[in-house]
Amino acid sequence: MIGRFTGPRDLVSALNKDIIIGAAMRRTGGLAGLGAGDGLAADPCALVEIAARKGCEDDPETEAGKRTGLRRVPPVLAAFPIHDGRRLAIGAYATAIELLDAGPAISLLSIPGGSGKGVPDGGATNRIRNVAVIRAACGAANRWKWSRALNDYVEAAPRVLLESQRGSARSITAQDLLDAVAIDGIDLAELLRRHGWSVHSKHTKFLREAFNEMTFDLADALGFGNRVRRA
Fold it and tell me: Does the predicted model carry a pTM greater than 0.90?
C-alpha cells in the first residue's frame, strides 16, 4: 500500500513498489493462482451504445450507427448505470493505476520545483494526481481516518470484510474486494475461490452489499457523489 511521501524520492519508490509492479502483475496473471486468461485479460472490452442522460449535454454518447468500446466489468459493477457516480469512481481508480503503469518513469530532476520554472515535468504532475486518486480510493474503501492537518488519509490496517476462521481460507479485505472488481475484473465468486472460500450465497451476498456500500464512499471521496443515484 502507498505510504505518505516526504519527498520526490519517496514518491518514486512508492510508485515502483506498491502500484506499478503490483497492477501489472495482476493484469498479466503474474500473481499466484492467476492465469493469463482470467478476469479482464481474457476479454477486456465490450462494445456498447451509450445514451446521454436527459438534459446532460456533457455526458458521453455513442454516435448513431456506431459502438463505444468500454472496459468489461463484472456483474456487481455492471449493475450500476454507466453514468452513475459509483461506477465512475471505480473507473477513475482503475484508470489511475493503468496510467501509472503505462507512463514513463519519473525523473527526479523533472519533479516540479526541482529544475526551474517553465521546464516540462515529464508527466510527473499527472502521475502525482493519479497517486492522489488511488490514495483517496484506498482510504475511503478501508475507512481510514481523515487528517485535516495532513489533508490526507492516515494509513492504517486493511479493513477486513470476511475474516478467516479455519482451514486454508484467507481473510478478504476491502482492498481485495476493490482491486478484484476494478483491476482484475473478476466476479465475487472468483474472489472467494482465489482466497480459498467456498462459494456460498451468504458470502457472495455479503460481499455484494459491502461493495455497494463501499462505492458510495468512493464516489464521495473522488468527487462523483453528486452523480450517484441514491434510494
Answer: no
